[in-house]
Write a structure and sequence with these properties.
- With 346 residues, the protein is mostly helical.
- It has helices at residues 4-19, 33-41, 45-58, 61-67, 74-87, 96-100, 105-127, 129-134, 142-158, 160-166, 175-181, 184-190, 195-219, 233-259, 275-313, 326-345; strands spanning 316-317, 323-324.
- Among the domains are: 4-131; 314-345.
- Helices cover 70% and strands 1% of the residues.
- Helix 1 (4-19) packs across helix 2 and helix 1 (4-19) runs parallel beside helix 7.
- The longest helix is centred in the C-terminal third of the chain and has 39 residues, at 275-313.
Length: 346
């Protein structure tokens, strides 16, 4: 049984499939979320047809492979769709249970949603006149771009120009590097008399860098070791995103300044506000709201527990003139009731 959030996302997924004119939904009229759940997340031939259409829209050459397969070779279609999901880094290469619908609805929903995000992203790229001028064909799909980028990276890493950049040969060495290459004994004889001044300047520069790093460390609180018992999921995610952003920025700078002149391809276009990033942002926002709700619930529970303990431990006047706690008063009433019951029996 799916939860309220999953049913809402299923309804959105069904509406997106209708908007994309999925042929497997022609003549299908369902409105209840539970019926949509049975249609999209329950193993059936109809569900497999819908997923097959989504995969062929994501990667059109897959349609040519499926067209030559017979109905008895449905298992080969399942394996090809799992391979496509693996190429897009959405599942494992042997994850046939996900394709057949034998896993949890939430995982199936996430897989289909990501495929539809790719389809809509490719449609947006194809409809953009600016990108049509930059790319040789507007009909290329997401997988084609991914494989072209893979070939580009292979060419870059196998290029002798890249190897020369990584292991440069400077002969003769520049003047500022000669002092680092000669033995230490020779350095002592060849260094100028102003060595102390140079060293003091370097020491001052290192001190300034150390102070800057210390300030940066105070700002990046998520890099510090977490407090015992504190949830570190958000800190780890921030660190991973920071490292990923730095790698992308470094690669872009090296590509534009060093590698682009040796490559016939244009620079890869990076979209910082795609549907996948929006989906991650939405999930993180929901997660933070749920954490706030849990914190408020814990605080309220602690307050109620304190009030109850205070009520049980404080002595009050119960009409008889004597001061007693709630527990003592209940015990007194219990004893009176037992005495009264005994006297009635006698």
């Amino acid at each position: 049984m799916a939860g309220g959030v999953e049913l809402r996302l299923l309804t959105e997924l069904y509406e997106r499939l209708q908007k994309l004119s999925c042929p497997s939904l022609e003549g299908v009229y369902v409105t209840e979320p539970q019926s949509i759940l049975e249609l999209l997340c329950t193993p059936s031939a109809h569900r497999l047809d819908i997923l097959e259409w989504i995969c062929t829209r994501t990667y059109p050459p897959l349609q040519d492979q499926f067209s030559v397969l017979k109905e008895s070779q449905a298992e080969l279609k399942v394996k090809e769709m799992a391979k496509l999901g693996f190429d897009l880094m959405l599942c494992n290469p042997d994850d046939v249970d996900l394709i057949k619908g034998n896993v949890s609805p939430s995982r199936q929903l996430a897989f289909m949603t990501q495929l539809l995000d790719i389809i809509e992203t490719c449609d947006n790229v194809s409809s953009s006149s600016e990108l049509q001028l930059m790319t040789p064909s507007a009909d290329k799909n997401f997988v084609t771009y991914a494989r072209e980028n893979e070939e580009l990276l292979k060419e870059l890493f196998s290029s002798p120009h890249l190897q020369a950049t990584l292991a440069p040969e400077c002969n003769p060495w520049p003047a500022d590097l000669k002092t680092l290459l000669v033995p230490e004994e020779l350095q002592k004889r060849t260094l100028p008399c102003s060595k102390d001044n140079v060293i003091s300047e370097h020491i001052q520069e290192l001190q300034r860098i150390s102070l800057s790093l210390e300030d940066l460390k105070h700002e990046c609180t998520f890099l510090c070791s977490p407090v015992a018992g504190e949830d570190t999921v958000i800190q780890k995610l921030r660190l991973a995103l920071t490292d990923f952003h730095q790698l992308i920025a470094a690669f872009t700078q090296v590509y534009e300044n060093e590698l682009q002149e040796h490559c016939r391809y244009t620079a890869p276009q990076m979209n910082t506000s795609g549907p996948l990033f929006k989906s991650v942002h939405q999930l993180l926002t929901t997660f933070c709201k749920e954490l706030e709700g849990i914190a408020q619930f814990i605080e309220t529970s602690s307050t109620i527990e304190g009030v109850v303990k205070k009520r049980q431990q404080e002595k009050e006047c119960w009409g008889g003139g004597s001061m007693a706690t709630l527990y003592e008063k209940i015990e007194e009433l219990k004893q009176n009731y037992e005495l009264l019951q005994t006297s009635l029996q006698d």
